[in-house]
Design brief:
globular; two-stranded antiparallel ribbon; 71% helix
């Protein structure tokens, strides 16, 4: 039974990878072109970005149990580092993204040191202060020669390399530039959660005192959680500024941090699959809120922003009531219930055979 489930999971994973590989070209085929347009390629690119960013947040909150409301600050730091390297020092895109992610990870590891004495709401308030202060620092006169101050940084629009112009458009090129790192970093996160580091994260999340009694270096693993989360956020931010070709101090604010937190709760905390669902919801949230604002009688009078905020609040409340473990937790619960029913049926089958009645015996 286990081999069948593993093979089925492997087949589904292989099909998903094939679909992601050919997705930018599906709209050119006759059948898929009827319901898929080139705009979906752009959305696929955004899905890759959000998958990287939200994966880091889920590693921090869902797996290690460290509450953070300032994840967007790490995204902004990685984006600014990459933008400065590409704009002022003519770094290649790949090198700028790698340096932006690694330096942001180091900053996150260092920020984890003062956060060791904080937990729960106090840690949340400290990270919230970080996202409030950072935009003001980026606009300061001392560093505005690199950050651009209030005006931000403008980059050249990204284009497909000349050697690939006959095979891909700009949107298709950007799709692969975001999706390939997203797949690699998702596999890396999956490996981390099943390694010694991941087990230490879960032990700290479940019981910090119990983890200490088991010999887990709580301080080291807390800082590691912040560092890994910042690494993912910085890499996603670097790719974000490359694809958008613009970055301002208000691009990543507190509203975005809260939105990301809502998304991983809806998708499922402490789950790689939950992060995938969260990235899908994050990518489609604008289309969803626009559609709801259009069908609600008073949606246009409230405005898109008000409708979006109300929708997020309602979804979060309903999720906490009906699916506290998110979409991934609900799906996993349904699978366990189906497997439990099959197991009970197999166990009870030998005892459910009807015995012959006396009247039927000779």
């Amino acid at each position: 039974m286990r081999d069948v489930l593993l093979s089925r999971r492997f087949i589904l994973l292989a099909l998903a990878l094939v679909l992601l590989a050919v997705f930018p070209y599906l709209h050119t085929l006759p059948f898929f072109g009827s319901f898929i347009d080139p705009y979906r390629t752009f959305q696929g690119m955004r899905f890759g970005l959000w998958l990287i960013i939200l994966m880091g947040l889920n590693l921090l909150i869902g797996y290690s149990g460290q509450i953070s409301l300032g994840h967007a600050a790490f995204v902004s730091i990685g984006a600014y580092i990459a933008a400065i390297l590409m704009n002022d020092y003519s770094f290649p895109v790949v090198a700028a993204v790698l340096v932006g992610g690694l330096l942001t990870g180091c900053i996150g590891f260092l920020i984890g040191i003062p956060a060791l004495r904080l937990s729960g709401p106090y840690l949340a308030i400290a990270t919230l202060a970080m996202i409030i202060v950072l935009p003001q620092i980026l606009k300061h006169d001392v560093i505005d020669q690199w950050t651009g101050g209030v005006m931000g940084i403008s980059l050249d629009l990204p284009h497909v390399p000349d050697s690939l112009k006959d095979r891909a458009t700009d949107d298709q090129w950007l799709y692969y530039m975001c999706m390939v790192p997203a797949i690699i970093m998702t596999i890396m996160a999956w490996s981390i959660t099943r390694s010694r580091i991941g087990r230490a994260f879960i032990a700290i999340r479940d019981s910090e005192i119990g983890a200490q009694q088991m010999g887990v270096n709580v301080s080291l693993y807390k800082m590691t959680a912040f560092g890994l989360s910042a690494l993912y956020a910085g890499t996603g931010g670097a790719l974000y500024v490359y694809t958008l070709a613009y970055l301002g101090p208000a691009e990543f604010d507190i509203n975005l941090s809260l939105t990301m937190l809502v998304m991983i709760v809806l998708g499922g905390l402490g789950s790689i699959a939950g992060t995938v669902y969260a990235a899908i919801i994050m990518t489609m949230r604008i289309d969803l809120t626009d559609w709801i604002a259009g069908i609600i009688p008073f949606g246009e009078r409230l405005g898109i922003d008000t409708t979006r905020g109300a929708l997020f609040g309602i979804l979060l409340i309903l999720s906490m009531i009906f699916t506290p473990k998110g979409v991934a937790g609900n799906i996993e619960k349904s699978k366990q219930e189906r497997h439990g029913e099959k197991l009970r049926e197999l166990i009870s089958r030998p005892f459910s055979r009807s015995r012959p009645r006396k009247s039927d015996s000779v």
